[in-house]
Amino acid sequence: MEAATQAVDEAKLEEAIGQAVSDAGAALNGALVMLGGELGLWKALAGAGPSTAAEVAERSGVRERYVREWLAAEAASGYLEYDPEADAFTLPPEQAMIFADEESPVFLLGGYRIVSSAFKDRPRIEQRFRAGEGFGWHEHDPDLFAGTEQFFRPGYRAHLVAEWIPALEGVEEKLRAGARVADVGCGHGVSSALIAKAFPQSSVHGFDYHESSIERARELAREEGVDNVEYAVAAAKDFPGDGYDLVCFFDCLHDMGDPVGAMAHVREALADDGTVMLVEPRAADSLEGNLNPVGRMFYAASTLLCTPNSLDQEVALGLGAQAGEARLRAVAEEAGFSRFRRATETPFNLVLEARP
């Protein structure tokens, strides 16, 4: 029996084609956004007002013919304004915050490096999908590690010391007096160094299983002149030490194969009145609540990065980047925590507090 043919709604088809074309253009333009950062094109436009291709080429040292085509692509993407009478392009201040100002809390160029790594790793990830196997964080292209540092640094700088720590019960006072802190899954150590620099009386210990990330963390700490932070290669379930007043997981608990085991180890390593700060991607507790642009980005990252990493480890729980507060609460309670609350949030993050 032939399968019934579903009627095609021409208007819906046209809409779907439009989205697919837009997405393909966005994917290609991602490489151009990165080039703009690497070649200094965004900075050549920032604060300069209307600029011709020749002027941008002169400021950046890039051949004009390349610059003109790049400018046209960014104008078509809506990132630049174009004046046809003057044949000039302007980078609005809002877009400058995203692409040109590395100190901006919404600087997003690092995100494009993460996207770049995903495309480079796609053939190997496809093989793991077919085999039902995981793909460890350490196996990815180096663009992922550099991009993660660059992507998360602006948000941590803007929110961690000024908002997130003060939202935790009694933690800021402990840190000012001198506390013992563990940053689990610290990556390149941006978060660890920020805490150490803001609270010089405290001692901060960053742990990550990825050796090259720990090497980079030590390098960054030296560059920042921070001497009350130290780093060690260690997994979340066996990092050393005890009596920690604060243990932090920055955008990493959901990546772990055994988040319950990691939290149970933290429970044992905490001081009696210690606190766990979980910074996780913002998510609703239901799939339908995450069907929005932020959820789209996080589900994509989860499919390519977070879930494969979890499936590469023991237990392989596969929480995913859109686990949501309720599921994270269940993890904490199973690990032995009796108090759990949402301390604060941003458009991209949930900041959760767990206590014994």
Keywords:
356 residues, Rossmann fold, two-stranded antiparallel sheet, 50% helix, 15% strand, globular
General description of the model:
By secondary structure, the chain is α/β, with parallel strands linked by helices. The chain is built from 13 helices and nine strands. Strands 5-4-3-6-7-9-8 form a seven-stranded mixed β-sheet, with helices on both faces. Helix 1 (10-38) crosses helix 6 (109-131), helix 3 crosses helix 4 (64-76) and helix 6 (109-131) crosses helix 7. It is globular. The mean pLDDT is 96.
Layout of strands and helices, then pairs:
Blueprint: H1 10-38, H2 41-45, H3 53-60, H4 64-76, E1 81-83, E2 88-90, H5 93-99, H6 109-131, H7 142-164, H8 171-177, E3 180-184, H9 190-198, E4 203-208, H10 211-224, E5 229-233, E6 244-250, H11 259-269, E7 270-281, H12 293-311, H13 325-334, E8 339-345, E9 349-355
